C-alpha cells in the first residue's frame, strides 16, 4: 500500500510502514530527522484524491503537546 504520513518529520512512523513492506513517505514543513522518503512542504502539495493508482493513503501523525 502507498502511504503518506503527514505532519511527521521524525521518520519513525514512515520507517515502521516501510519495514512492513509498504511504500511510505513522510511529509512536514520541517526537514526529516533521518534520511528516507520525505517531502518538506505543505501536505496539500502531495495529497491526492485517494482514488487513483498513484494516490497514497493519508495518515496524519500530529505531534504531542
List the helices and strands and how they pair.
Elements: E1 2-6, H1 12-19, E2 23-28, E3 38-40, E4 57-60
Parallel strand pairs: 1-2, 1-4, 2-3
Overview of this protein structure:
This protein has 65 residues and is an alpha/beta fold. It has one domain (2-60). It is built from 1 helix and 4 strands, in the order E-H-E-E-E. Strands 3-2-1-4 form a 4-stranded parallel sheet, covered by helices on one side. The model has no long low-confidence stretch (mean pLDDT 83).
Low-confidence parts lasting 5 or more residues at pLDDT below 50? none
Count all strands and give the number.
4
Task: Name the helix and strand elements from N-terminus to C-terminus, one letter apiece.
Answer: EHEEE
Task: Supply the number of helical segments.
Answer: 1
Radius of gyration: 11 Å
Largest sheet: 4 strands, parallel
Count of folded domains: 1
User: Quick check: average pLDDT?
Assistant: 83
Sheet with the most strands: spatial strand order: 3-2-1-4
Estimated share of beta-strand residues = 25-35%
Key attributes of the depicted protein:
1 helix, four-stranded parallel beta sheet, alpha/beta
Short description:
With 65 residues, this protein is α/β, with parallel strands linked by helices. The protein has one domain. It has one helix and four strands.
Amino acid at each position: 500500500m502507498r502511504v503518506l504520513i503527514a505532519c511527521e518529520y521524525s521518520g519513525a512512523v514512515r520507517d515502521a510502514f516501510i519495514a512492513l513492506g509498504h511504500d511510505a513517505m513522510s511529509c512536514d514543513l520541517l526537514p526529516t530527522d533521518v534520511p528516507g522518503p520525505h517531502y518538506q512542504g505543505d501536505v496539500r502539495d502531495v495529497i491526492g484524491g485517494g482514488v487513483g493508482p498513484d494516490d497514497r493513503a493519508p495518515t496524519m501523525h500530529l505531534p504531542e503537546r
